[in-house]
Write a structure and sequence with these properties.
Layout: H1 16-27, H2 36-39, H3 60-71, H4 85-97, H5 109-118, E1 121-126, H6 129-139, E2 143-147, E3 171-179, E4 184-188, E5 197-199, H7 201-208, E6 215-220
Antiparallel strand pairs: 1-6, 2-3, 2-6, 3-4, 4-5
Helix pairs in contact: 3-4, 3-5, 4-5
């Protein structure tokens, strides 16, 4: 599933203009993100987040790349043609894989990076969960993250199965943003039928502990 390659945002009033500019020079300008709730799409059938999906699929990669592109306010390839829901998901899958349409075939990082480039995004490969969390926290960039949702101590254990499906297999999610007030993170999980959820760093470390060790940070080009 996963593959290979290779900013806390300035707080209002934290040191003034020069401090903010110095932080931007070191970390880059924070990405202006869309609301995670407004970008959510589910890989499983749900009347709100994907009414035309099948009950289940291996579309976590296409769903995650769609949400990451939307988060950084870039157009998803196919949306300009009016494609939505499962039609958009299958279009993105075909674009990623060179024409593949099998919902049960997984997608790897090179597939997702190809779609990101087509959408006018830049990407950075991250290989340690510490770097993934730091990228979201300090740079404000969403990260498409690999892991396993069946690890007992990850965030999925807090939800009923019908709210967030989980299989003991590799899975892509999007770590969408950092919540500084609570030191937590917002996750858009393609298997969630309740939209984005708030999770702890420890829960993401647990998710990463099996089938993980890989992330794709995303920002507009």
């Amino acid at each position: 599933m996963a593959g290979s390659q290779t900013e806390q945002r300035p707080e209002p009033g934290s040191g003034g203009w020069f401090a903010r500019k110095a932080k931007e020079f070191l970390l880059g300008t924070p990405v202006q993100l869309a609301d995670p709730a407004s970008v959510h799409i589910s890989q499983v059938e749900d009347e709100v987040y994907n009414a035309t999906s099948t009950y289940a699929s291996a579309n976590c990669g296409p769903a995650s790349v769609i949400m990451a592109i939307r988060l950084v306010n870039r157009p998803v390839p196919g949306e300009e043609r009016g494609l939505r829901g499962e039609e958009l998901m299958l279009h993105v899958r075909a674009l990623a894989t060179g024409g593949g349409t099998d919902r049960w075939t997984g997608t790897h990082n090179l597939h997702l990076q190809h779609v990101l480039e087509r959408a006018g995004c830049r990407w950075t490969i991250l290989r340690h969960v510490r770097d993934i969390l730091k990228r979201v926290r300090e740079h404000g960039e969403p990260v498409i993250m690999a892991g396993n949702p069946a690890v007992p101590t990850t965030y999925t254990a807090r939800y009923p199965y019908y709210d967030i499906r989980r299989y003991d297999n590799g899975h892509w999610i999007v770590v969408s943003r950092y919540v500084p007030e609570r030191g937590t993170y917002i996750v858009n999980d393609p298997q969630s039928t309740i939209g984005p959820v708030e999770v702890t760093a420890q829960e993401l470390v647990a998710f990463d502990s099996k089938d993980g060790g890989f992330g794709i940070a995303v920002r507009p080009a």
